[in-house]
Amino acid sequence: MDFDEAYYSTEIQGAVDHPHFLQRAEWIQDYVPSGAKVYILGCGFGHLVYHLRELGINAYGIESSSFAYASRVTPFIFHEKAEIFTYEVGSYVFSWNMLDCMTETTAILLSLQLRETNQLHVVCCSGDYDGYLIKDKEWWDILFNHVIDFEDPISLLHVPTSWGKVSH
User: Fold this and answer.
1) CATH code, 118
2) How far apart are the first and last CA of the chain?
3) pLDDT of residue 74
4) Number of other CB atoms surrounding residue 118 within 10 Å
5) pLDDT one-digit tens code per residue, 73-131
6) Mean pLDDT of all residues in the chain?
7) How far from chain centre, in Å, is Cα 12?
């Protein structure tokens, strides 16, 4: 079993109806204008992309794992490395615990690719997670528009003030 297969065998592969995917999709829907293009980085099997599209959002996933891509639940997934993908200017980019799985160099390359997008990333800024890129929030904020610390759940309520909630 290779790394991707081992990693993704722990994910809820077939559970498109798992409640946290729909909750995240509804949360994103509150902040993305109608018609905007949305990218989900490190989307795995694409559960979140599936729910966003069900809500009428023009969503696409970016996934580098061949194993996850082969088992995707929606056709709207690009099998690509996030740091070399070309993002539409003004699009919305989200990630959950994906940036901290990159190397420092790859994270910096990705930040350059995303410089003309609206971004919201959830990362782990502390803790002892083997193999993760653990940096403080200030480090992440220098690279990316808006970062939320996974270890600070209250910060999930904070989105970029320039976004504001939208009505659909």
Assistant:
1) 3.40.50.150
2) 45
3) 95
4) 21
5) 999 999 999 999 999 999 999 988 788 888 899 999 999 989 899 888 877 776 666 66
6) 82
7) 16
Q: Does 162 fall in a domain?
A: no
pLDDT the model gives residue 38: 96
Token representation of residue 146? 């808006």
3-state secondary structure of 58: strand
Give this prediction's pTM.
0.84
What is the sign of the dihedral through the CA atoms of 86, 60, 47 and 141? positive
56 — pLDDT class (breaks 50, 70, 90): very high
In one-letter notation, the amino acid at residue 163 is W
* 51, 71 Cβ separation under 8 angstroms: no
Q: Which tokens belong to 115?
A: 């410089």
Longest dimension (CA), the chain: 46
Which amino acid is present at 161? T
Burial (0-12, 13-18, 19+ Cβ within 10 Å), 136: exposed
Q: How many domains does the chain have?
A: 1
Strands (E), the chain: 37-41, 58-63, 77-79, 92-96, 118-123, 147-149
